[in-house]
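dude i think i finally got it to work??
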Amino acid sequence: MSLSSISLSTILSIVSLIVMTVMLLGGAVLMATRRREHGRGAMLGMVGCIVLLVGVALNALIVFLLPALGDSWSPSEIEIVLAIHTLASLIVQIAGTVLLIFAVIARRNPPQPVQPGHPSHPGHPGQQPWQQQPYQQQPVQQQPGWQAPPRPPFGEGQG
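look at this
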């Protein structure tokens, strides 16, 4: 097969396969790096991306095998192969999509408490965030040059 004999639909199929492969590999890697924060959701998402990658591989197989099959197989045999491919592709796409949906709704790991002494930890060492001291208002400083009038001591002026 020479470059001039490749059809536009074949080129678009190849570009689509490449884009989907890069996107799903990136998603799987991203979810693998977020396993600690997202727990089960990240695992389900990663498996979903891998299952969808299997679907991309099935589509790539058909894109590259179909031209070769067309020369040696009868139309009815090709129709059977395409029907099997469509059914397998449907099952893989449903499984991958369901896994991604469950990844979105999966329970996340609770946030880990920040260790005392960590720069982002407010409060004193050994004090939990929920045990912080209540806010205490600082006394208001008077501006220089202004003084409140003195108050006489009690008992003066009474007679």
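The radius of gyration is 35 Å.
im so relieved honestly
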